[in-house]
């Protein structure tokens, strides 16, 4: 298991990431923002560790949902992940594509 509970803490109040421990020496609160910043590498490792606890979509044999996409789809998602989809005036083509896909 990637994450472990801190000894003496209430259940799920704080977490300690085994792999991010070289960056973070103390446990982090689970449901609060910390007062001090942590290195970006530690934040990435903690979030990545949490996501590793999810199942592997390629091994999902219990549903008929397609869990694989063409590499071009991944590239399109990564190219547009930083767009603010709420700003319809700033991103008119994205809004048009979104409306088209909903139809």
List how many beta strands DSSP finds: 3
Any idea what the CATH architecture of the largest domain is? Irregular
Q: Describe the largest sheet.
A: 3 strands, antiparallel
- State the end-to-end distance: 43 Å
Describe the structure using short key phrases:
MYOD Basic-Helix-Loop-Helix Domain, subunit B, mainly alpha, 3-stranded antiparallel beta sheet, extended, 103 residues, 8% strand, single chain
Describe, in plain words, how this protein is organized in 3D:
With 103 residues, the protein is mainly alpha-helical. The chain has two domains: 3-57, MYOD Basic-Helix-Loop-Helix Domain, subunit B (Irregular); 69-102, no CATH class. 33% of the residues lie in helices and 8% in strands. A three-stranded antiparallel sheet has the order 1-2-3, covered by helices on one side. The model has no long low-confidence stretch (mean pLDDT 74).
Strand-helix topology:
Blueprint: E1 3-4, E2 14-17, E3 28-29, H1 40-52, H2 71-80, H3 92-102
Antiparallel strand pairs: 1-2, 2-3
């Amino acid at each position: 298991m990637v994450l472990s509970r801190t000894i003496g803490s209430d259940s799920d109040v704080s977490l300690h990431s085994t792999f991010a421990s070289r960056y973070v020496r103390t446990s982090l609160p689970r449901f609060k923002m910390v007062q001090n910043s942590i290195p970006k590498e530690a934040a990435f490792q903690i979030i990545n560790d949490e996501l590793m606890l999810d199942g592997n979509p390629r091994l999902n044999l219990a549903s008929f949902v397609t869990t694989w996409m063409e590499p071009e789809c991944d590239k399109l998602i990564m190219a547009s992940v930083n767009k603010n989809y709420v700003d319809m005036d700033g991103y008119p083509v994205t809004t048009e594509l979104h409306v088209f896909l909903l139809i």
